[in-house]
Amino acid sequence: MTAEIIDGKACAADIEVGLKQRITALAASGRSPHLAVVIVGEDPASRVYVGAKQRACERLAIESTRIDMASTASFDEVVSTVRRLNADDSIDGILVQSPLPAGMDEVAITDLISPAKDVDGFHAANLGRLVQGDTSGLLPCTPAGVMRLLDWSGVEVSGARAVIVGRSRIVGMPLSLLLAQKGVDATVTIAHSRSRELAALCRQADILVAAVGSAGLVAADWVRPGAVVIDVGVNRVDDPGTTRGYRLVGDVEATAFEVASAMTPVPGGVGPMTIAMLMSNTVRTAEMRSAD
Amino acid sequence: MTAEIIDGKACAADIEVGLKQRITALAASGRSPHLAVVIVGEDPASRVYVGAKQRACERLAIESTRIDMASTASFDEVVSTVRRLNADDSIDGILVQSPLPAGMDEVAITDLISPAKDVDGFHAANLGRLVQGDTSGLLPCTPAGVMRLLDWSGVEVSGARAVIVGRSRIVGMPLSLLLAQKGVDATVTIAHSRSRELAALCRQADILVAAVGSAGLVAADWVRPGAVVIDVGVNRVDDPGTTRGYRLVGDVEATAFEVASAMTPVPGGVGPMTIAMLMSNTVRTAEMRSAD
Q1: Neighbours of A69 (CB within 10 A)
Q2: Which of A120, A148, B33, B35 could join B93 via S-S bond, C-beta 3.0 to 4.6 A?
Q3: Residue ranges per structural domain of chain A
Q4: Beta bridge partner(s), residue B249
Q5: Helix (H, G, I), strand (E, B) or coil at A56
Q6: Closest residue of chain B to A127, computed from CA coordinates
Q7: How confident is the model at residue A289 (pLDDT cuts 50, 70, 90)?
């Protein structure tokens, strides 16, 4: 068996079509969504991600403002920036790019963003709604992107055994809540580096999600033949044969494509969905503020 | 094998000893913790629960104020009551007893309680911290009680397979997050009414938690011999042989005591722990406000 490729780029493009219509409707009422991106320091991967987000804004005619802060910026300076953006009525969405410089408390900064402008969906008040069983608010982008991708691909989620490897606040934890919601109805297992018999556990999965950030950690023989595999990992591995000197690989061994029934590629799987959901959240914040 | 009984009453009594010391320390600085309980309508079970909470306050010299509202009270009247209690500096903790009258949005009311006075731990901002990996705040009482009970009983949680049957915002969802936290390290499965092969899934559990509210739903042969069983359910079943006409039973068949290595009884298992954790949260809010 060779897996059907779950094409995140194509799904993201479909989402952008819908967003463009909503952006046009907003423009007709005199509003253009406006995203503010705060980036602190010179992390090269962050600059790549922020660049991709800004290009998506350009494609969709979403206004974006980038605030570059020096790696030496203090916690208080970042706090002041967030407070200023909260108070700025022209800004709909605020995103503080991770990682912040070592020692700066990312969660504390996240929780200072106005929940109504929290386009990353990482604010405690937004994450807490998932525990309450309410998914109508701003959802974290990567987990929301995975849900959309499963839906778009026609994967049967209700009653399925989903195993998520990784328990981050960004992906694993919120995705487990989304998959277990009433009406979604997967039976969800959260596994992690301390889980015993991880391979056998993964082989029970109808839907296997890898979100650990470790190249090829999930071996092909951890995948049950016919399972659906969602690979959230984006890892750089050295590759002198490329002009950049590295290539991107997922958390799942590429040979798993011979075992799964459907699988996301890396790159071109979950990555584009994360950006599409960020755009979706930004349009959403503008619509909500427009309705106020 | 006959299971060791995990004695929630004894564990709760141990917790009360520690709380009394903290309450004495607060009193020395001129503060007494003060819990406000709002009860709307005449639900008989609610009155029993609120009575038990008030008796716990009396045992511990925690001041308690009960606000009785008619079953005909409007949403706005309940909102006004909560706002008044938020603003009242003499009140440390606020609890709105569930269930509210039919049609009244409980989650909306919960989210109006000041997060710093949210002794039930159900506010989105408090639940969201669990997704963020932070368990230092006000935790929901029943899940926190289960965690304390496992610790008190010496149950090995790290690396264990935990299966939680039930995905409520009150128990199943937050407990899954607590068990999966870094440093706790259980491998957690959230199962529910839509889960397939529920019996086989439960038999994989080292720690089986039943939190569905359905008498005896979890059959004895769903329990792996030697597993630890935590029965969160409290269900009334008719029993003409008793003076009250009913008795309380859990979600797990009583014959599971012959299979498990350790198991909580109903009543006297998780129930007393929920109240102990409510008292603990109330003392906590008073300490936090005292430190301000």
Answers
A1: 17
A2: B35
A3: 30-115, 141-271
A4: B235
A5: helix
A6: B128
A7: confident
Q: Are A102 and A72 in contact (CB under 8 A)?
A: no
Cα–Cα distance measured from residue B159 to residue B241, given in angstroms and rounded to the nearest whole number: 44
- Angle (deg, nearest 10), helices B270-291 and B8-28: 20
Task: Assess contact for A178 and A135: CB atoms under 8 A.
Answer: yes
d(CA A182, CA A154): 18
Please check whether residue A99 is in contact with residue A105, taking contact to mean a CB–CB distance below 8 angstroms: no
Question: Could you tell me how many CB contacts below 8 A there are between chain A and chain B?
Answer: 118
Q: How many CB atoms lie within 10 A of CB A17?
A: 8
Give the integer Cα–Cα distance in Å for A221 and B237.
48
Rounded-to-5 percentages of helix, strand, coil across chain A: 40, 15, 40
Q: What's at B81, amino acid-wise?
A: T
**Pick among B179, B189, B202, B207 to test the A interface (most A CBs inside 10 A):** B189
Q: Which residue of A has its CA nearest to B129?
A: A124
Fold agreement (B30-115, B141-271): yes
Residue with tokens 């709909």: A92
Residue type at B257 in one-letter notation:
F
End-to-end CA distance of chain A: 52
CB atoms within 10 A of CB A114: 17
Strand-pairing partners, residue B208, are B163, B229
Give the residue numbers of A marked as catalytic. Answer: 53, 97, 120
Q: How far is A227 from chain B (nearest CA, A)?
A: 16
Options 1.10.10.10, 3.40.50.720, 1.20.58.220, 3.40.50.10860; CATH for B30-115 is: 3.40.50.10860
Give B106's contacts (C-beta < 8 A, 6+ positions apart).
B96, B98, B99, B100
Per-residue pLDDT of chain B (292 residues; tens, 9 = 90+): 799 999 999 999 999 999 999 999 999 999 999 999 999 999 988 998 999 999 999 999 999 999 999 999 999 999 999 999 999 999 999 999 999 999 999 999 999 999 999 999 999 999 999 999 999 999 999 999 999 999 999 999 999 999 999 999 999 999 999 999 999 999 999 999 999 999 999 999 999 999 999 999 999 999 999 999 999 999 999 999 999 999 999 999 999 999 999 999 999 999 999 999 999 999 999 999 888 7
Residues of chain B neighbouring A188 (CB-CB closer than 8 A): 189-190
Interface test with B, best of A189, A197, A198 (most B CBs within 10 A): A189
For A182, nearest residue in chain B (alpha carbons): B167
ipTM of the complex: 0.97
Query: pLDDT tens-digit profile of A183-210?
Result: 999 999 999 999 999 999 999 999 999 9
CATH number of A141-271: 3.40.50.720
